[in-house]
Amino acid sequence: MDYTTSADNVVHGPTGHRMHSDSVAVPTVWSGDDGNMIIWSLMELLKLANMDGQPFNPDDPDSYTLLRDALLAVFAKRSDYPRVYSITSLPTQNIGPITVAEAGEVWIWSASAYFTGYRSPLCGRPIDGHTLTPLASEIDAVGGTLSKTAYAGLWGYALENNLVVASGAWTAGMHKFVDLGGDNFRCPDLRNQFRRYTGTDADTANARTLGSAQTAAFLHHSHAYGTAAIVQSGVGAGVVTGGNSRAGTTEENGGSETRPVNTAFAPRIHV
């Protein structure tokens, strides 16, 4: 394709494109087709951005920032990539998937009976904290009190998944939340817990429910216990007697709890 149709042009050697010459005294001869191509292309961009053209006025910045504003408007409407927002300044209406800068994640619009707004698809997930303090997308899962307003997405997650229990039924170790009334709720306390996926409780044959806690237990077993025979015999007319006694005793072994080899991370929940 030709990059210009002006009469005054030269050929750019490396690319072979024709371009306007800067070696001829101004004014140069500029093709009307070139001018119309540029103007029409810019007008198509303004149309796509739903903006009107206006005459140039050096005293009116709006007249020479049209191209910039049109580009911003067009890219803002594109749906093939998520726009970047701060976790403290999320959109209040659905504009499609967005990128949350502090979380480094794509968040989507969520709408339920308990929460409407942007939140992470991972909201509510227990995660291994690898930093001394929680990241912007995390909270400490240590049974603390949180605001329903500040953490509306997390509180909505708890309600949506039937993870809210009465205060008297809440214990450390379960992935459950408590409505404390007003604007406050309690989050889970997951310290000193190992994860285990839902299935069947081997002791009760009942199904394990999401977020339920379970106490420690040993698999039932037995130990062999030896005995020692005692025999006493005499000589001549002596009487032979016999007996049986325990061979020994078991001894204590182990520590203060039952645990596998492990590495400690901070208990956190994704907001």
TrEMBL record:
Residues 242-271 are annotated as: Disordered. It comes from the Bacteria. Residues 242-261 have a biased composition (Polar residues). This is Phage tail protein. It comes from Pandoraea commovens.
